[in-house]
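Hello K.,

You asked for the raw outputs rather than the summary table, so here they are, unedited. I folded two proteins back to back in the same session to keep the settings identical. This is the first:
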Amino acid sequence: MLFGACIYVLFHLITGFMRTADTVIVMRALSGVGGGIMVPNLVAMLTIAFPPGLMRNVWVGMFGAMGPVGAAGGTVFPGFFGQLTEWWWLFFFLAVFGAVVFGATSFILPPDGVPMDATGTVDYVGAYFGVAGLVLFNFVWTQAAVVGWEEPYVYALLIVSILHFALFVLWEGKFAKEPILPLGIWGSPSFGPMVLSAFMSFMGVGIFLYYVQIWNIEIRHYSNLLTAAANSAFAIVGTCGCFVSAIAVRYLPAQIVMATGAIAAVVAGIIFATMPAQQTYWAQCFPAFIIMGFSPDFIFTATQIITSNSVQRKHQGIAGSLMGTIQMYGLSTGLGFAGTVERYTNDGGRDQVGGIRHALYLTIGMAGASALISLLLIRIPKDQREGWDKEDGGAARA
């Protein structure tokens, strides 16, 4: 976790010295590597420290809420720095703030005891095939939104990405001695549909959150600070949603909790996609934010708790990494899909509102499909355990 924190701080600091869009993008990508290292280990630390039960649900729910809360609340800082000083001071601030928070964390957290798997090895081949496939597939859809599908290299890279996925499955299933993603965790009949449902929900949420900002900034010409104020409803409701979802997942079947989050995204998408270009914030934008605030927390909390409760204590890192990847990758890949839809429906850039509406229709479709998958294909009973199972009891006491 601290290694990832150092990467995060370092590349945020370097970003403050960049002055071109290309160099800023590269440094932001590298700082994201630090976040990618931290997130699964933070989830694993929570799920290792807290055995299955209500307190685990609450803390995992709180952790999940920090995504939407951080995204919405964090929009205050670009407005503050962008309007009062030069934009690059934002990244110096984030580097210093991160150093303080992560430095304090290193003192607060207890030192590690015996490693969960001291003799384990790293599956470098599997890591390459998996990561390269994900990166290429995401790049294809993002690039297609910019240059269109007329470019031959877009199709070529799509084929290469699919080939990487196929080789990843073959390697993990047949050759890897210690696979980076054990295929055995997919053994539950409902696990695959749960992951697919979560992925499609996060795609819809990512599309919604991005195009809400574009609508308010470019169509309604909100300032940075006014945009941040508009997002505050989402942040507040998201915080409340984490506690509601943490409790709900104990007393309701998983498919109901996940479907509720997906349906919230459908309703919010319909409200936002159908509003006039110019309208008071309180008429449709505000209720859409309120309803959407419950969506990511219900999805993330349910899937993360179900996944972590389904594996042994030593596999909590894998569980956290899997669901963290599904969340982040869904948010990002959804934008590539939506960007492609917008590109081909905005009349060559002359109908920006129409293009955004069609992108938001994709939110409705993705979230609607997620709800159907949850209700029809997922059958995971409510989990009211308190404490570790017998096979993990010794590890927990150690």
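The second followed immediately with the same parameters:
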Amino acid sequence: MTFTNESLDRVFIYLGPLPIYWYGVIIATGAFLGLFLAMKESERLGIKKDYIVDIVLYAVPISLITARFYYVLFEWEQYVNGPLWRVFAIWEGGIAIHGALIGAFLTAYLYSRQKKLSFGLMADIAAPSIILGQAIGRWGNFMNQEAHGGPVSNEFYQNYMRFLPDFINQQMFIDGTLYHPTFLYESLWNILGFLFLLLLRSKGMPRRGEVFMSYVIWYSFGRFFIEGLRTDSLYLFGEIRTAQFLSILLILIAVIGITYRRKTGLANKFYNGKKVK
């Protein structure tokens, strides 16, 4: 394949002078598909779909704010000298998935408490939707040519990447260098995780909260290794990759949570075909 420095157009469509970017379209597509899936599961369990819609309506804008805040916090040197509007320029990229998850988690928890719903159950309903949305959303990074890995050796290209569709390799050829498509690695990992969670939910005997905690373990495990390939990592103290640190921490919390809840009986079984209040 012969590479050029041409890249895909980041703009999906213009509404007059206003550009609508592929990044936003892809993120929105993932969110809508996730919402549809969660609504179908809530219907199966006898839970009002309005609860799911309400959580999404609250969580999406809050998650965008916390995702951007998280990113800007760790990349403050890029924004400290202005212009101030760039702090809010989400369309340029630069949102952190861990920041989004924090916002969504807190929103869902507070909503569940206010409505006297089981947060563990609501989180289990949402987990496959979240990881599916992440799998789709990574293609927004692809369109922006961001969240990629380091340069690819010729040997790696010949052994692996030359079998990828040409448009992927071309988009990963940036300023004369071919980079690892880490967006693709994570998207594929998340699709496998989505299928695993569906299987766990339908065939296994998960206990309340364990589908969500299984999501945390699955996603964090893959993200730890993929993050090591990326060139745009956020860092703690200038040395520790933030996403890798959080991945280890979240895996430990999830494993301890599953073990503790099982030993204390807090995690009662609920996927038995019966309605759950």
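Residues 271-277 have pLDDT under 50 and may be disordered.

Happy to rerun anything if the numbers look odd on your end.

Regards,
P.
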